[in-house]
Design goal:
Helix content: 40-55%
Number of helices: 18
Order of helices and strands: HEHHEHEHHEHEHEHEHHEHEHHEHHHEH
CATH class of the largest domain: Alpha Beta
Strand content: 5-15%
Radius of gyration: 21 Å
Oligomer: single chain
Structural class: alpha/beta
CATH topology of the largest domain: Rossmann fold
Bound molecules: pyridoxal-5'-phosphate
Strand order of the largest sheet: 1-10-9-8-11-3-2
CATH architecture of the largest domain: 3-Layer(aba) Sandwich
Largest sheet: 7 strands, mixed
Number of domains: 2
Number of strands: 11
Distance between the termini: 32 Å
Length: about 425
């Protein structure tokens, strides 16, 4: 398929798999290295004693915020992926505690990094002392002088808002019009101020950014530009490496790993793909997944740096039930980082998200939100689509597929209210029938 046919499919809102022509064997020099990823991972570990104190539900994990890697053979069969194409696993971030989505990784990391910086500037972190002391009065009094703010379609707000207010910060979340009511309610119940905007995600972010610029006591988490968020996400990679080893899954020249990551602005999938490429190099193949009406990352990668077109500019609506992915313009930071690393991007219709949401529950009793289903279309795209076949052929992978591992990253769902989930499920069931 030539580039113009691909672009017409994209602009017509049809599902398409785009392959990145700039994918390189070896990542070029970048400002970011695996040390940055490991620093983020260590920071999360340093805070574990404090998190256990603030969130009783983390007692069992010792303050670590992690999700299991699960094999899903029944779902694989229901998706029509035969064993000759490898094995399907799910990285279950839909079950991440406290935030209920992948945003727990990046969001918590950035709030904790800010808290750490303040505490150390004010001499509250004595050498060798436990971070648990940050739950005490002097630190809380310090944090209470600051406000942490963020713009969000919902899940990032949940993550930042809940963590910031648990530490004692004032917290404000600027919500876009597509944010679900229950997400706002959950935040208000935790003492977070929710500002509702009539516009989309980009406008909610801009409003928050503007307010923060006028007040030095407001720390704004900027989803479109933040390195701290991205590195927080990347810390998932070394953990996944351990999980793969524990499950006896090899990743090498004979055993390719394919990872399918739902993408909004690109920070979460970008951070994780960056981390995985540091660890597995050419043996890991990362694909992003976007709704057909919100393919901002694919558009940005097709256009190249500097163009900065939004999905509206090509006639798409940015309307999707996958609220976590309803973003009109990609993060420049993530797009630049992904240029040599990303294998491709594909788009999925909402109807397919609902069908897969339903199948995940029926086959494996896995409860996800619509955004989180986007990764489940990956193996089919790769194995059945002409472009997918072209990718496998080009990289000499066709014969290796029986030994391949596919990981669909399920990115959210834990706190979706019963009533809302039932509607999703019914819709998926009737589409699957
Ligand atoms: C935010 C989100 C994503 C994508 O993360 P970005 O950093 O916006 O690309 C994927 N799935 C869910 C459920 C999300 O909330």
């Amino acid at each position: 398929m030539d580039a113009s046919t691909e672009f017409s499919k994209l602009a017509a809102g049809h599902p398409v798999l785009w392959l990145n022509p700039s994918l390189a064997q070896q990542a070029g020099p970048s400002d970011l290295t695996s040390d940055d990823m490991l620093a983020a991972q260590s920071r999360l570990q340093r805070f574990a004693p404090l998190l256990t104190r603030l969130f009783p539900e983390l007692q069992a994990s010792g303050g670590s915020i992690e999700s299991p890697l699960v094999e899903t053979p029944r779902l694989q069969r229901a998706l029509g992926i035969g064993p000759e194409r490898g094995r399907l696993w799910i990285k279950a971030d839909h079950s991440l505690p406290i935030a209920g989505s992948i945003k727990a990784r990046g969001g918590f990391h950035e709030v904790l990094e800010f808290a750490e910086k303040l505490a150390s500037e004010h001499g509250l972190l004595k050498a060798g002392g436990s971070y648990a002391q940050l739950a005490e009065a002097p630190a809380r009094e310090l944090f209470g002088r600051y406000e942490v703010a963020v713009g969000s379609t919902g899940n990032l707000g949940l993550s930042i808002g809940v963590m910031a207010s648990a530490l004692g910060f004032r917290a404000t979340v600027h919500m876009s019009s597509d944010a679900k009511e229950w997400k706002k309610e959950r935040l208000r119940n935790r003492g977070v101020r929710v500002v509702e905007h009539a516009g989309d995600y980009e406008q909610a972010v801009a409003a928050g950014r503007r307010q923060a610029e006028q007040d030095t006591y407001i720390y704004f988490v900027d989803d479109e530009r933040s390195l701290s968020l991205l590195l927080g996400y990347s810390a998932a990679a070394p953990r996944l490496q351990e999980q793969l080893a524990a499950a006896n899954i090899a990743v090498d020249a004979k055993h390719p790993l394919f990872v399918y990551l739902p993408c909004g602005v690109g920070g979460a999938p970008g951070g994780i793909a960056f981390g995985l490429k540091q660890l597995f190099g050419p043996h890991v193949h990362c694909f992003f997944a976007e709704p057909t009406q919100s393919p901002c990352f694919m558009l940005h990668m097709m256009d190249g740096p500097g163009a900065a077109r939004s999905v509206y500019d090509i006639g798409l609506s940015n309307r999707t039930e996958a609220d976590g992915l309803a973003v009109p313009r990609a993060s420049e930071l993530s797009a630049a980082l992904m240029e040599p690393l990303l294998s491709g991007v594909y788009t999925v219709e909402d109807a397919e998200l609902f069908r897969h949401l339903y199948l995940a529950q029926r086959e494996e009793d896995i409860r996800i939100e619509p955004s989180a289903a986007a990764g489940l279309s990956g193996p089919g795209m790769l194995c059945n689509d002409q472009q997918g076949q072209a990718y496998l052929a080009r990289h000499g992978l066709l014969d290796l597929m029986p030994q391949a591992t596919h990981i669909a990253w399920t990115t959210g769902g834990l706190f979706v209210p019963e009533e809302e989930y039932r509607r999703f499920h019914e819709r998926g069931a009737s589409l699957a029938a």
